[in-house]
């Protein structure tokens, strides 16, 4: 390596003569979970999906154990993905339709992967601590806890089958998607991959686009309708999406919204909240308490 620089606490950009790479150094998930995740993403890469391939260590391992200050840390090295993060105002219907198509392909390949490699270590969504809403959302926030409970119970009662439930990315907000020439997309950061209803992978980018990427120049309701229509149309070119699951899109967007609010309670220091953090929490609190949907309008599809 010629140069190594931190991108986050866990991701490091590495420059070598052969090109650019990204090292992930974290104990966020166990060795077995990370190894299963890497098998999954390498399978997707070999099947032609836009994901970053891993680089084996000199010991021929894709997940390498290293010891730092008597602590064991797990490291995975990825080849740098082509493309760039699009500016917010360029997330238009054309790009999002292609994203929908790639998510459809991802889920079709996920089914194929699970037929050959039954999932042993990667969790079902509801077993991950981030979905334990009632543990972290304060008891005095009775209305939000009520809504959180309703969302969880509603989703858990949906019948699961191979067509609607399986291994997925789990965190496809727009910063985890790189766009190259000709709308070639690469999905990165599969660290939060989980077993969930496939429609959750559609809910997250729709939520992300509405929450972070709409920059005016039009009507946000029309924008939400247009990007939802585009993502769903692209998805259906590659995979089946039943009308029954499509009708539940609002429910999964609400799951994502409560999930994000729960993360604030999990990871923000309540004794040292910044003005921006207070503003964001209050914004979420009001929207959830009044049951306002981030995706409005009745004729979405």
Short synopsis of the structure:
The protein has helices at 31-46, 93-116, 133-136, 142-156, 200-213, 220-236, 243-246, 249-267, 275-289; strands at 3-6, 11-16, 19-26, 54-55, 64-68, 71-79, 165-168, 177-179, 185-187, 194-197. The protein is of the alpha+beta class.
Q: Which spans of ≥5 residues are poorly predicted at pLDDT below 50?
A: none
Overall number of strands: 10
For the termini, the CA-CA separation is 49 Å
Listing every helix as H and every strand as E from the N terminus to the C terminus, the arrangement reads: EEEHEEEHHHEEEEHHHHH
Q: What helical percentage do the residues reach?
A: 40-55%
Fraction of residues in β-strands: 15-25%
**How would you classify the helix and strand content by structural class?**
alpha+beta
Alpha carbon gyration radius: 20 Å
* Number of helices, counting only DSSP H or I runs of 4 residues or more: 9
Shape label: globular
Molecular structure report:
- The structure is a single chain.
- The protein is built from 9 helices and 10 strands.
- The longest helix is centred in the middle third of the chain and has 24 residues, at 93-116.
- 43% of the residues lie in helices and 16% in strands.
- With 301 residues, it is an alpha+beta fold.
- The strands form 3 sheets. Strands 1, 2, 3, 4, 5 and 6 form a 6-stranded antiparallel beta sheet that branches. Strands 7-10 form a two-stranded antiparallel sheet. It has a two-stranded antiparallel sheet with strand order 8-9.
- It has helices at 31-46, 93-116, 133-136, 142-156, 200-213, 220-236, 243-246, 249-267, 275-289, and strands at residues 3-6, 11-16, 19-26, 54-55, 64-68, 71-79, 165-168, 177-179, 185-187, 194-197.
């Amino acid at each position: 390596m010629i140069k190594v620089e931190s991108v986050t606490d866990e991701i490091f950009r590495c420059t070598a003569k052969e090109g650019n790479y990204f090292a992930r150094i974290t104990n966020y998930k166990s060795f077995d979970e990370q190894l299963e995740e890497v098998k999954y993403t390498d399978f997707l890469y070999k099947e032609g999906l836009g994901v970053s391939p891993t680089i084996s260590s000199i010991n021929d391992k894709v997940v390498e154990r290293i010891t730092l200050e008597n602590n064991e840390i797990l490291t995975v090295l990825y080849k740098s993905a082509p493309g760039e993060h699009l500016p917010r105002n360029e997330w238009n219907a054309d790009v999002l339709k292609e994203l929908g198509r790639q998510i459809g392909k991802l889920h079709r390949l996920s089914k194929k992967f699970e037929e050959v490699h039954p999932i042993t270590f990667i969790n079902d969504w509801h077993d991950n601590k981030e979905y334990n809403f009632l543990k972290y959302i304060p008891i005095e926030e009775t209305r939000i806890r009520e809504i959180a409970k309703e969302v969880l119970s509603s989703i858990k009662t949906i019948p699961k089958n191979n067509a609607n439930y399986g291994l997925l990315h789990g965190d496809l907000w727009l910063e985890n998607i790189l766009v190259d020439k000709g709308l070639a997309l690469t999905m990165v950061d599969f660290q939060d991959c989980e077993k969930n209803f496939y429609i959750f992978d559609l809910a997250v980018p729709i939520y992300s686009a509405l929450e972070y990427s709409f920059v005016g120049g039009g009507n946000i309701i029309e924008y939400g309708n247009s990007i939802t229509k585009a993502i769903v149309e692209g998805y259906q070119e590659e995979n089946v999406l039943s009308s029954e699951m499509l009708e539940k899109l609002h429910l999964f967007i609400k799951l994502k919204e409560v999930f994000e609010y729960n993360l604030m309670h999990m990871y923000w220091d309540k004794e040292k909240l910044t003005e921006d953090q207070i503003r964001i929490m209050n914004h979420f609190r009001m929207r959830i308490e009044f049951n306002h949907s981030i995706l409005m309008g009745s004729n979405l599809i």
